[in-house]
């Protein structure tokens, strides 16, 4: 039986996607060992969740560094010391320097609230409504130096309703995010999903388009 996947989580906020990962472990769906939860915000809810679960935490505030690159290198040095197999960005609201993330390409994923490549960056719900889209969703992708531009692993989709505003759309999407992220991490933990030189492979075959959530499971 393979060893549990060693995961480090980076989060800036309340940590609801991190909580979804913890819940998947509690249900026996995910074999993972959380080795660190790191944040740029000392009051991040994710840190409190980690502390309650007995998971080591790290807070490094950007204000203590003259340059963004210096901060990122210092943060990732601390992360590397915990020897994670996978880094999960779960609401980490910083653009990471390319030199800092380069060693982790293929071992770092992010969840983003849009159907990438649409709406990289911030205010995705607002932008989808303003554009008149009929669908919205979330994506999990491998992290590269290009903002929200790494290879997309999987997506979850929901319809935009006539009465939706930014808040209601975000609220309806969040439970779907909480299904999507653990499902992707489960595949990585089971060695079914990886990033190779030619792109993403799923069960040893090239993944031509992102997986989709269907009835709570990821399908081609």
Would you kindly provide a written description of the structure presented here, covering whatever features stand out?
It is a single chain. With 220 residues, this protein is of the alpha/beta class. Helix content is 30%, strand content 27%. It has helices spanning 16-26, 45-52, 68-80, 98-101, 124-130, 166-189; strands at 5-10, 32-39, 57-59, 86-89, 108-112, 135-142, 152-159, 193-196, 199-202, 205-206, 211-214, 217-219. The strands form 2 sheets. Strands 3-2-1-4-5-6-7-11-12 form a 9-stranded mixed beta sheet, with helices on both faces. A 3-stranded antiparallel beta sheet has the order 8-9-10. Strand 2 (32-39), helix 2 (45-52) and strand 3 (57-59) form a beta-alpha-beta unit. The protein is globular and about 45 Å long. This is Phosphoribosylglycinamide formyltransferase. Residues 6-185 form the Formyl transferase N-terminal domain.
Determine and state the CATH class.
Alpha Beta
The mean pLDDT is: 96
Number of helices: 6
Overall strand count: 12
Termini gap: 26 Å
CATH evolutionary superfamily: Formyl transferase, N-terminal domain
| Series of secondary-structure elements, N-terminal to C-terminal | EHEHEHEHEHEEHEEEEE
Shape: globular
Helix content: 25-40%
CATH architecture: 3-Layer(aba) Sandwich
Rg, Cα atoms, Å = 17 Å
Q: How would a crystallographer describe the biggest sheet?
A: 9 strands, mixed
Domain unit count: 1
CATH fold assignment: Rossmann fold
Strand content: 25-35%
Highlighted features:
alpha/beta, nine-stranded mixed sheet, globular, 6 helices, 220 residues, 27% strand, Rossmann fold
